[in-house]
């Protein structure tokens, strides 16, 4: 939340798309970290189920660090791609006209 406030407090420049891209990057990073956190929490009951079904503690579900980093980067890229086209369209429009027609 603090980073979002810092991005919003930057004075508006002529290039509005830079602010959109910065917000998108932050949203993608936060969603990736949240997804990894939820997955790690779900590993606890998941491993318990695996251990109960197999009767052994030799098999464990894990998330390698490299995989987590790749998933976070993928989350940021997909969020950026999802916002890129609308942000470019919005940056080209006059704000008053865009609000009146939308």
Q: Percent of residues in beta strands?
A: under 5%
Structural category is: mainly alpha
What count of structural domains?
1
Distance between the termini: 28 Å
The description of the largest β-sheet is: none
Low-confidence stretches: none
**Which H/E pattern describes the elements?**
HHHH
| Radius of gyration, in angstroms, nearest whole number | 20 Å
Task: Report the count of strand segments.
Answer: 0
Fraction of helical residues: over 70%
User: What is the mean pLDDT?
Assistant: 81
Shape: rod-shaped
How would you describe this structure to a colleague?
The chain is mainly alpha-helical. It has one domain. It is built from 4 helices and no strands. α1 runs antiparallel to α2 and α2 runs antiparallel to α3. It is rod-shaped and about 65 Å long.
Features:
102 residues, mainly alpha, 80% helix, rod-shaped
Write a short abstract of this structure.
The chain is an all-alpha fold. Helices cover 80% and strands 0% of the residues. The chain has one domain (22-93).
Note the topology.
Blueprint: H1 2-9, H2 16-54, H3 65-92, H4 95-101
Helix pairs in contact: 1-2, 2-3
